[in-house]
């Protein structure tokens, strides 16, 4: 089986490539430098030339605030390029595993979102990601779309690494306390993707949309405290004080959902998995960073 990974240098892409490299699956990895998915014709040529059984799209325009003013590029990467990739997969009879986001929801729910809940994004990033999902579903390709929430790990740029970087120079930190999500360890999501690849390889599965996220529902403030609690156990320097602030005090450009937690029951039942273990993921990330 041949897998083509797009976005190999991202935090998830780096983790996926390590998992697949430790398996008997052939993997071809592309970074943005080697294959820019915004170049539709070249993307088509390269994917068809490599002739993969599965394409994993771990690329995205992820700057939520900048997307508000850079709407063209956000839509080009998160929607139109995804539409192009899905059409290529349909023509090549390849599966597409695509990573989407909890930000397709408006945050007005009082409980974790399930796959059949109505999407209603409140920022450009979320809208373009949702439009990308729709483009895939209309393309006639075989696909698995995985929405995830608050990815973190030892690779790339993410909240955990930002907190650890700030802790080196800041004695006092202010962190948003009124946005709720389900932090997800990249290692657990990569393992889930590997399980899906094995199911594609050995079983007959159908195209589907799934949620996969962590087993802890918390605010960014609570997430930061969890990170620093684990860091203290490893004798890593942490701030003396952490303050919880409101989203209004943070004054970001884009609106964020008040609650974007995801319910992972459907994918866990389908593939005999567990939700991402948040505390274990924090500990593994910190140990790997050390």
Written overview of the protein:
The longest helix is centred in the first third of the chain and has 22 residues, at 71-92. This protein is α/β, with parallel strands linked by helices. The chain has helices at residues 11-21, 40-50, 64-67, 71-92, 124-137, 159-166, 186-202, 220-233, 247-250, 265-271, 278-289, and strands at 2-6, 26-30, 54-57, 95-101, 142-148, 151-152, 172-176, 180-181, 184-185, 208-211, 218-219, 241-245. The mean pLDDT is 96. Helix 2 (40-50) runs parallel beside helix 4 (71-92), helix 4 (71-92) packs parallel to helix 5 (124-137) and helix 8 (220-233) packs across helix 11. Strand 1, helix 1 (11-21) and strand 2 (26-30) form a beta-alpha-beta unit.
Tally of alpha and pi helices? 11
Shape: globular
- Widest beta sheet: strand line-up: 2-1-3-4-5-10
| Beta fraction | 15-25%
Q: What proportion of the residues is helical, as a percent range?
A: 40-55%
Structural class: alpha/beta
Extract low-pLDDT stretches.
none
Largest sheet, strands/sense/barrel: 6 strands, parallel
Spatial gap, N to C terminus: 35 Å
Q: H/E series, N to C?
A: EHEHEHHEHEEHEEEHEEHEHHH
Number of strands: 12
Mean pLDDT: 96
Evaluate the radius of gyration. Answer: 19 Å
Short characterization:
By secondary structure, the protein is of the alpha/beta class. It has helices at residues 11-21, 40-50, 64-67, 71-92, 124-137, 159-166, 186-202, 220-233, 247-250, 265-271, 278-289, and strands at residues 2-6, 26-30, 54-57, 95-101, 142-148, 151-152, 172-176, 180-181, 184-185, 208-211, 218-219, 241-245. Helix content is 43%, strand content 17%.
């Amino acid at each position: 089986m041949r897998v083509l990974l797009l976005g190999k240098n991202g935090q998830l892409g780096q983790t996926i490539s390590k998992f697949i490299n430790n398996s008997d699956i052939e993997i071809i990895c592309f970074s943005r430098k080697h294959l820019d998915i915004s170049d539709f014709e070249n993307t088509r040529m390269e994917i068809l030339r490599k002739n993969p059984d599965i394409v994993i799209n771990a690329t995205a325009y992820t700057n939520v605030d900048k997307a508000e003013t850079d709407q063209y590029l956000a839509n080009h990467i998160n929607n139109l390029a995804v539409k192009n990739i899905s059409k290529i997969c349909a023509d090549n009879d390849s599966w597409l595993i695509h990573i989407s986001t909890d930000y397709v929801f408006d945050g007005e729910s009082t409980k974790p979102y399930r796959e059949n809940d109505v999407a209603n994004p409140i920022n450009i990033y979320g809208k373009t990601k949702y439009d990308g999902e729709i483009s895939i579903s209309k393309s006639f390709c075989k696909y698995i779309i995985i929405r995830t929430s608050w990815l973190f790990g030892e690779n790339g740029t993410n909240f955990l690494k930002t907190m650890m970087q700030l802790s080196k120079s800041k004695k006092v930190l202010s962190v948003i306390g009124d946005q709720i999500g389900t932090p997800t360890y990249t290692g657990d999501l990569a393992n889930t993707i590997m399980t899906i690849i094995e199911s594609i390889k050995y079983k007959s599965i159908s195209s589907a949309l799934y949620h996969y996220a962590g087993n802890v529902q918390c605010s960014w403030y609570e997430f930061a405290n969890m990170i620093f609690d684990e860091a203290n156990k490893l004798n890593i320097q942490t701030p003396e004080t952490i303050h919880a602030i409101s989203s209004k005090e943070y004054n970001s450009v884009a609106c964020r959902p008040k609650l974007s937690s995801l319910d992972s029951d459907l994918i866990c039942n389908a593939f005999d998995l567990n939700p991402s273990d948040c505390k274990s993921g924090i500990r593994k990330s910190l140990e790997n960073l050390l």
